[in-house]
């Protein structure tokens, strides 16, 4: 009895040791998974990429809206609000906007709230405040630096909102903040003021804004290119995208790099490089034609989101030059592009074409019209009756056999001989 008890105790201790080893292995695997989630490898160099610490003085979101800096009474150079990043008849969009008789709505540097200045110059990043007209003429600014001041009252945008703006920026190929940009955006008035851009000329439900420069006739380059983290931070109006965390604790950096439409790589200089990742690896018209010619079963007509900016115009050009065949599905309305191998085509005689046109049915009959003509000829369509369902006898027998087998297993111990 004592020997049997010692054997059981030894077996129990051995199982405890094995269980502790498994738990330790699980902890190690968990730590490794956490590190893999925090680090990811660059495709080109194979180096580990991890979010860096911000070196920006104010890394959080900020606004380019002059009203967030001061209240004003007169705008001398530009009467459209918001100001700094727009071209119009009154302003070229690049020089600072000049305001007169302003009062601070927040503390700026050493100047407290409600401090008054005769002149304020504001561009998309910096602000200059002059107490008097003489100070302005003598270029003696009381404040002259970036006004990216943390604003606790500012609305915290979600990572999904920033993600949409970054994807549109990378896909567009140029910045909405460029004074020459005339692209139409979908931002509301509050977000447009924070970005410092004007609203589109035509908005659903609103009258035409004739002062707006954004009519959709943009002539800037739409060639997609790689962008740095700083360029993206400037575009979405944050100090440093690596430091942005939403209210749920998710880092904006992780949200961007994990999106399927965004590519993030680490350059040789140590900077993060971002670019738009299209589903189709197409770059120009010739490349598109080669892909279609090598796809005998046809391919769906690509859009700019799937390929590159301008692909729709190249597809139209290929159709007009008869270099490809384009067939539209009558039900789904999707267009398929097929290759056209002109060296395999044969010339058909004119008499065969004429014979085909003479025998081609002019009027396509609907199903109801076809049935009506068949009935007039004495041909009555027969309805195929549905096959009768089988009775449940066989299924009941199967269920009965299962029950009997289960019953036998339950009483199997009664049939086994005793050891």
From TrEMBL:
TM segment ranges: 24-41
Classification via InterPro entries: TFIIE-bsu
Keywords from the UniProt entry: Membrane, Transmembrane, Transmembrane helix
One of the record's GO molecular function terms: TFIIH-class transcription factor complex binding
Annotated GO CC locations: transcription factor TFIIE complex
Domain of life: Eukaryota
BP GO terms, sorted: transcription initiation at RNA polymerase II promoter
Protein name from the UniProt record: Uncharacterized protein
Organism: Guillardia theta (strain CCMP2712)
């Amino acid at each position: 009895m004592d020997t049997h008890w010692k054997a059981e105790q030894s077996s129990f201790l051995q199982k405890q040791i094995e269980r502790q080893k498994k738990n330790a292995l699980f902890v190690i695997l968990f730590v490794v998974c956490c590190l893999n989630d925090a680090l990811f490898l660059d495709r080109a160099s194979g180096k580990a990429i991890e979010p860096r610490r911000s070196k920006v003085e104010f890394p959080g979101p900020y606004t380019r809206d002059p009203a967030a800096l001061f209240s004003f009474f007169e705008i001398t150079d530009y009467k459209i609000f918001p100001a700094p990043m727009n071209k119009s008849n009154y302003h070229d969009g690049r020089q600072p906007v000049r305001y007169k008789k302003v009062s601070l709505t927040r503390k700026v540097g050493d100047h407290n709230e409600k401090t008054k200045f005769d002149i304020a110059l504001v561009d998309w990043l910096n602000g200059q405040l002059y107490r008097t007209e003489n100070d302005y003429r003598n270029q003696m600014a009381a404040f002259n630096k970036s006004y990216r001041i943390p604003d606790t009252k500012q609305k915290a945008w979600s990572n999904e909102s920033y993600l949409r703006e970054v994807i549109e920026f990378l896909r567009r190929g140029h910045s909405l903040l460029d004074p020459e940009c005339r692209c139409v955006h979908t931002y509301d008035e509050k977000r447009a003021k924070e970005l410092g851009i004007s609203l589109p000329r035509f908005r659903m439900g609103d009258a035409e804004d004739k002062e707006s420069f954004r009519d959709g006739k943009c002539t800037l380059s739409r060639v997609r290119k790689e962008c740095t983290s700083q360029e993206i931070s400037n575009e979405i109006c944050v100090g440093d995208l690596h430091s942005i965390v939403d209210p749920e604790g998710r880092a904006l950096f992780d949200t961007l790099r994990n999106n399927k439409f965004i590519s993030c790589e680490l350059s040789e200089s140590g900077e993060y490089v971002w670019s738009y990742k299209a589903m189709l690896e197409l770059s120009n018209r010739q490349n598109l034609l080669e892909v279609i010619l090598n796809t005998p079963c046809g391919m769906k007509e690509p859009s700019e989101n799937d390929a590159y900016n301008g692909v729709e115009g190249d597809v139209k050009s290929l159709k007009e030059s008869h270099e490809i065949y384009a067939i539209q599905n009558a039900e789904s309305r999707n267009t398929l592009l097929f290759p056209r191998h002109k060296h395999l085509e044969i010339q058909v005689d004119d008499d065969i074409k004429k014979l085909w046109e003479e025998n081609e049915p002019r009027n396509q009959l609907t199903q109801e019209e076809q049935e009506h003509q068949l009935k007039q000829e004495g041909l009555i369509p027969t309805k195929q009756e549905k096959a009768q369902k089988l009775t449940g006898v066989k299924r009941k027998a199967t269920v009965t056999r299962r029950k009997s087998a289960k019953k036998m297993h339950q009483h199997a111990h009664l049939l086994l001989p005793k050891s």
